[in-house]
């Protein structure tokens, strides 16, 4: 059996983590096994499932708290475990910290992979320092990584600084989801709408962590301009939740905005919804848009989102600067007769059965 150690921030509920878990569930675990290096002491949402599937979870501190200790711990880890691993894979949106990757090369781990998951890294007041280190490291990244994945061309350009993927040996790897799981479910729709007492409403759904990049505040501003029969459910949580709640109360939108938190059954809430919205400032390859299309939902998304996410004719791309276009589009959709949501013609390029097979083929280089 070949083991791969996946390097992540945490294995809590989120888009990137869901991608990794979809792969994990669909590989042949008699031949391959995933372990995880996480940061911090909090037990993540997926850790119980990882352990049931035979994986191990190793905990590391945040590098910023003590860089010297962090480097020492990774050297000690690989010195002890180097013979156990066929591969090491970093899942990241930044090359500012490649300590673990360098250590994996030092101790002879055969496959050293990076997976670019986003088209930007927002570091706030540390942005300038971050970008200097990030750009320096990407000039030298081929010294340490011998497999480079990206979820989109935008993500590849940001992380690796390249536009010609083939010439620079960057593998464009579609993130995978279980299409069957996200198919429209009439029973779930009826149950969730009744539970929320929104049977007669046109429901928008936004899925994602409550962080500035996801631009929830824009969605709230749109709802102020939309008719009373149009409401929005937010699935996810994050540091901006309190600020967003305050904004909703200030605008008097308590009956139009519903914060439902993180849900393990996102697919049921997609079935309950009538349209999907994602006004993100940037994204790598947002699987939430793909999941919404598989559920048969019309999607209203930011023009900043890669066209790779489009697997149907259900996606409408709008500029964030033009709120009126969003409002008009959503209004038009709200008065349309609902189509048969299980008859939407879909490209299967994100079907995890396809992507898991491709991932194993790509990672098998030695």
The class by helix and strand makeup works out as: alpha/beta
Please tell me the CATH architecture of the largest domain by its name.
3-Layer(aba) Sandwich
Strand content: 15-25%
What about the largest sheet?
A: 7 strands, parallel
Mean pLDDT: 94
- The CATH class of the largest domain: Alpha Beta
- Backbone CA Rg: 21 Å
CATH topology descriptor of the largest domain: Rossmann fold
Categorize the overall geometry: globular
Number of domains in the coordinates?
2
Number of DSSP-assigned strands: 13
H/I helix tally: 14
Helix content: 25-40%
In whole angstroms, how far apart are the ends?
14 Å
CATH homologous superfamily grouping of the largest domain? Glycogen Phosphorylase B
Order of helices and strands: EHEHEHEHEHEHEHHEHEHEHEHEEHH
Trace the largest sheet across and list its strands. 3-2-1-4-5-6-7
Poorly predicted tracts of residues? none
Question: Short description, anyone?
Answer:
The chain is 36% helix and 18% strand.
Which features does this protein show?
Rossmann fold; seven-stranded parallel beta sheet; six-stranded parallel beta sheet; 13 strands; 18% strand
Structure description:
- By secondary structure, this protein is of the alpha/beta class.
- The protein has two domains: 2-176 and 351-363, Rossmann fold; 179-343, Glycogen Phosphorylase B (Rossmann fold, 3-Layer(aba) Sandwich).
- The protein is built from 14 helices and 13 strands.
- The protein has helices at 15-26, 47-52, 67-81, 99-106, 127-139, 153-160, 179-182, 186-195, 216-223, 241-250, 266-272, 287-294, 323-334, 352-363, and strands at residues 2-7, 32-39, 57-60, 87-92, 111-116, 147-150, 170-172, 202-207, 230-235, 257-261, 275-278, 299-302, 315-318.
- It has a seven-stranded parallel beta sheet.
- The protein is globular and about 60 Å long.
């Amino acid at each position: 059996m070949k083991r791969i150690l996946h390097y992540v921030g945490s294995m809590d509920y989120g888009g990137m983590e869901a991608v990794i878990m979809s792969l994990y569930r669909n590989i042949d675990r008699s031949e391959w096994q995933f372990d995880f290096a996480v940061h911090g002491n909090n037990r993540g949402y997926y850790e119980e499932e990882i352990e049931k599937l035979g994986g191990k979870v190793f905990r590391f501190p945040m590098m910023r708290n003590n860089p010297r200790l962090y480097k020492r711990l990774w050297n000690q880890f690989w010195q002890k475990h180097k013979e156990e691993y066929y591969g090491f894979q970093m899942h990241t949106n930044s090359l500012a910290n490649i300590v673990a990757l360098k250590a994996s090369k030092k101790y002879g781990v055969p496959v050293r992979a990076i997976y670019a998951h986003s088209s930007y890294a927002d570091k706030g007041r540390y942005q300038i320092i971050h970008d200097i280190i990030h750009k320096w490291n990407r000039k030298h990244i081929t010294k340490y990584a011998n497999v480079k994945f990206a979820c989109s061309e935008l993500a590849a350009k940001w992380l690796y600084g390249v536009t010609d993927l083939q010439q620079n040996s960057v593998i464009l790897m579609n993130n995978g989801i279980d299409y069957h799981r996200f198919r429209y479910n009439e029973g779930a729709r009826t149950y969730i709408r009744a539970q929320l007492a929104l049977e007669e409403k046109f429901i928008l759904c936004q899925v994602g962590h409550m962080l500035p990049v996801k631009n929830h505040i824009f969605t709230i501003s749109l709802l102020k301009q939309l008719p009373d029969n149009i409401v929005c459910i937010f699935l996810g949580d994050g540091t901006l939740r309190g600020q967003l709640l305050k904004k909703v109360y200030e605008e008097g939108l308590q009956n139009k905005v519903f914060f439902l938190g993180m849900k393990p059954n996102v697919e049921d809430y997609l079935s309950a919804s009538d349209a999907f919205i994602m006004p993100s400032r940037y994204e790598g390859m947002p699987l939430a848009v793909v999941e919404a299309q598989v559920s048969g939902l019309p999607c209203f998304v930011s023009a900043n989102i890669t066209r790779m996410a489009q697997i149907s004719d259900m996606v409408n791309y709008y500029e964030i600067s033009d709120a009126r276009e969003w409002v008009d589009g959503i209004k038009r959709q709200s008065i349309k007769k609902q189509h048969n949501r299980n008859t939407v013609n879909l490209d299967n390029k994100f079907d995890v059965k396809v992507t898991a097979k491709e991932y194993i083929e790509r990672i098998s280089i030695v």
